[in-house]
Automatic annotation (TrEMBL):
InterPro entries: ModA/WtpA. This is Substrate-binding domain-containing protein. It comes from Variovorax ureilyticus. SUPFAM superfamilies: Periplasmic binding protein-like II. It comes from the Bacteria. It holds the Pfam family SBP_bac_11.
Length: 230
């Protein structure tokens, strides 16, 4: 079974692949990345049985009949946060002023694609609103998705580097620590949703994987990984 999945849910999907194999005998092959890239892959005809992206994008693709209507299930709400290398001092980020000072002091700033990823688009707007985009331009390090950005941050040799992406991607990356969510004035909370593709080879099996991702079996796993569940 093929899944196109936002990077924010990559850790969850990988944690449940083995469970689903035991339950059904079906292997899950995932492609992970920025939500815009996942949409492009679907529209280009890449094999897809289940898609996990933002709730608005799921609704849009259902309207276009590319995802099956009423097959969706929300995984939870994910906030965007600031990360540092494990063991580095945690920067002050609780107010816009503190975040601004910490960004100006950072040795490097890692974040995902500012054109196609949810967190990257938002963080680029935060830099602009804080008036620091030009000041930190030479220290920006962008990558196709948040998971890659966080792995690169973990490998950064210099102290004082920070990163920004969805909190789930921060929590699932070894060598990275969560400094905290963005200040309330810049908060971004995104609901991620799974749905069955209109091209699913086995829609019933795909629906079982959606139920596993969003159901009670994975509730604690989601909460531990940074999903906020009502």
């Amino acid at each position: 079974m093929n899944i196109l999945c936002a990077g924010a849910a990559q850790g969850l999907v990988k944690a449940l692949q083995g469970v689903f194999l035991e339950l059904t005998g079906a292997r899950v092959e995932g492609r992970f990345g920025a939500v815009g890239a996942m949409k492009e892959a679907l529209l280009a005809g890449e094999p897809c049985d289940v898609m996990v992206v933002t709730a608005p994008m799921v609704a849009e693709l259902q309207d276009e009949r590319r995802l099956i209507v009423d097959s969706e299930a929300p995984l939870g709400r994910v906030r965007t946060g600031i990360a540092v290398r494990a063991g580095d001092p945690v920067p002050a980020i609780s107010t816009p002023e503190a975040l601004r000072d910490s960004l100006l002091a950072a040795s490097a700033i890692y974040f995902p694609d500012a054109q196609r990823s949810t967190a990257g688009i938002h963080f680029a707007s935060v830099l602009a609103k804080l008036g620091v985009a030009n000041d930190v331009a030479a220290r920006l390090r962008t990558f196709p998705n948040g998971a890659t950005a966080m792995r690169e941050l973990a490998a950064e040799p210099r102290r004082g580097a920070i990163g920004c992406t969805q909190i789930t991607e921060i929590k699932y990356t070894p060598g990275i620590a969560l400094a905290g969510p963005l200040p309330e004035a810049f908060e971004l909370a995104t609901v991620y949703t799974a749905a069955v593709s209109a091209t699913a080879r086995n829609p019933a099996l795909a629906q079982r994987f959606v139920a596993l991702l969003a159901g009670p079996t994975s509730r604690c796993l989601r909460a531990q990984g940074g999903f906020e569940i009502s």
